[in-house]
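User: I'm putting together a teaching handout on how multi-component assemblies are represented. Below are the sequence lines for each component of a complex, exactly as they appear in our records. Could you produce the 3D structure of the whole assembly as structure tokens, so the students can see both representations side by side? Please keep the chain order the same as the input.
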Amino acid sequence: MSLEREQAKAARWFLTPALLLIGMFFFLPVVAGLLLSFTDFDIYAVASPDRVRFVGWRNYADLLESDTFWSAVRNTLYFVLVGAPLSVLVSLATALLVNTPGVKLQGLFRTIYFAPVVTPLVAVAIVWRYLYHPRYGLLNHWMEAVGIDAIDWLGDPRWSMPAIILLAVWKNFGYNMIIFVAGLQAIPRELYEAASVDGAGPWWRFRYITAPSLGPAFLFVGITTMVGFFQLFAEPYVMTQGGPLGSTRSLLLLMYEEGFRWWRLGVASTVAVLLFGFTLAGTLLQLRFSRGR
Amino acid sequence: MLFGAGALGCVGGGSEETTVVRFWAMGREGEVVEELLEEFERQHPRIRVDVQQLPWSAAHEKLLTAFVGRSTPDLAQLGNTWVSEFAALEALEPLDEWIEGALEPESYFAGIWDTNVIDDVLFGIPWYVDTRMLFYRKDLLAQAGHATMPGSWPGWRQAMEDVKEIQGPDRYAILLPVNEWTQAVILGLQAGSGLLADNNTRGAFAEPPFRRALQFYVDLFRAGLAPPVSNNEVANLYQEFARGYFAMYITGPWNLGEFERRLPASMADQWGVAPLPGPNGRSDGVSLAGGASLVMFRSSEHKAAAWEVVRFLSAPKQQVRFFELMGNLPARREAWQDSSLTRDSRVAAFADQLDRVVATPKIPEWELIATRVQEHVEHALRGTTPVDSVLVRLDAEVSKLLEKRRWLLARSQADAGRP
Amino acid sequence: MRSRAILLYALLLGVAALTLVPLLWMVAASFMSPGEATTLPLRLVPRHPTFENYLHLFTRLDLARNFANSVLITVLATCGSVVVNTMAGYAFGKLIFPGRDRLFRALTLALLVPAQVGMLPLFLLLRELGLVNTYMGALIPYMASVFGIFLIRQYALSLPGDLLDAARVDGASEFRVFWWIVVPTIKPIMVTLATFTFLSAWNDFMWPLIILTDSDKHTLPLALANLSGEHVLDTELMMAGSMLTVLPALLVFLAFQRSYMRGITAGSVKG
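Assistant: Of course. Below is the structure of the complete assembly, with chains in the same order as your input.
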């Protein structure tokens, strides 16, 4: 029994640093952020704290009728709803590809596909900005070589978001690919062998063996990818500064602008809270959907 | 005088240690000023200037963040429309006592100097100036039957129509990028709008002066004289100007050098710079009082040394060198006597315009308001919404942004009224 | 069957090429002389490879300093994170104390909240602590992470309890048990955690952007973003800078590939 008391005492020592850090530098600020969204905390208040007022739901009401906010919501949803599924599909396809029985150098291909994941986003965003250059970019160069007209990727509001999605898919697909590969390798070989004996084709095998076995991986990948895609920031910050015409201003970029460009911390916190709301709603929706099946 | 001498004493005598002045400058200025300061450091062996370069796109937020984080430098270059913001935060050192015996306000352009004076207190020393003028194709204007650029709105509009006449359907008279707020604001100022009203506590955009200006502006687009495009949509400005895609363009001095370098040689004499036309004539053809100022931060512990840097960079000789190195127009009038400025008629034209410059409202919220002006005006240009209703909406939004200011003013008045 | 194999390898190689093109172009352009990358017809291989751009970065732009900042912040963050999270993860996984599971569940709630919600107040808090524009302020958010605790806990759960109990019965203190038995056994997952922290700290942009105001203190990605604003036209120089930022991350990944991948799947399987 004294061993257990001993353990409880040790646990306190082991846990204190982590809990203190997380409590102080994560939970406390998050709660404060929530409170801040009900105030008009701004640059005046930073200079002198008695200039802050409690404003109730006003920040929320103002944002909900602001065009800038809704355009940021639309841009973010565009990125999440097109980019995330696309990224997951590419991950799945490449996972199936590298995991095909008999492929040699599997490890090498996996490493190559994974490489973009570990590259710093800022650096590759800069590289891609040049790849997208209307005149000297490789992308247009090759498109013109096969007879497609050049596109001003980052300068044309219709193409700026697709351009950023393309970069994000390139950068991220390797991560989920690894998860899918692990999922695929956990499926017993015998299932496929038995199905082949029964004369089932590849599509049937995918539909009735592979897909159901990957179910949990799908849910995990779906949720984490969506959460990650909601946090779009560095790509537009480096490549377009939210332009052209605000077509790449994401919610997080809006939060950054309101918060750190204009120091309207109340409004910025409201954006952050609403972003959290969207993320949570998306997560719950996916959980509901996966249970429903 | 005493103040300055005391300050100098601090630098000269006392400790043997070197004082390090942290100086934040933006963009290319940051690179070039290091060259200028080599001489300064030779003259002042005990002062070392640590120049840090902020990219223009992030400068404003970096400075504010530094202020909030209590890590402002000793000295900084500030866009002169930002001075009021940092003054309101009480981040800046008042300079009235520092300039005594060192600098004369009279040696600066009055409109520019004024942007640095907030509620009768001086917070910045103009470093270089800029304003907007009309760059135009002389040859196209002449072909359209105008020997010189007209000086009033009606004449200007007529000239644009005549140019458009010879330009044909795919070319335009003027380029007014829809992602900039400056053009609409300049026209508003020319028409006599104060932009804001009631001690800068609400928008005055829906009132007659600004409405008239915006109507004039929007009509240029609706009549097909200006294309509704943003800067990004013009692939290469200089190429398009040379090709005649547009014949006029409102821009600033930084483009003097760019136009010279980037236009084909055959164009060299075909373009000119004209003062902005005004509603009734040149006399009310005002432009923006732009440029950058040098400011010292209140929290600085090396103000005396920082002030030496300000004095050094304000000397006419350094102002001329600065112009030669990167084309920034000197803030000091004396520098304009130098042959490197007088020999170029296009540069000299700026001196004329600089006598007619007006500041935008000197309140912290202005930068944010300006972005809203741009967004709403762009709506008017790209859509078919009547100017009136756009401006009413703009005023409503601006009024919301200024709510805090109204509250603060009311509160301080209430405090003052209390016995 | 042959044609199927050919198609398969063609696909594999095609995807590999698409994945590598941006990185290879970066490498090639970083060795070109100024202006070469923006000259038509486009070249994919430098005409006369040169180190000029790298030299420029280190001599005129002082990127070595930013490099050192990045290394310092990343290494300290990694060490801190491994120590703090390993202790906590082990405690949650193997030590018995009242309220353990409730506390752990509360902690996992944090995984749902994006860090950005608290970012603005965190800045104000660090200001009060005098940590704005300090290395300490830059590395605080990486020190303790719920993900890290989670990772260690999952692994620690599989430690045989008998082994620990035997040591305890022999009179070893909890700290001795931790240091002499637990740490050596869970080393692999600690390496995983270290690799994760290293890469996320090295690559991070938003937090250092906010907290580090002096360019002397900027990390490599920040310096790079700043440069890209002013030197948009210097393609080759920017590519050299990108290369310098990408390379350490890639090398660390290649060296600890197995550990890193294990972290990904460990996170997903029980997630």
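A couple of points students might notice: Residues 27-43 of chain B form the longest helix (17 residues). Chain B has two domains: 2-131+289-343, 133-287+362-406.
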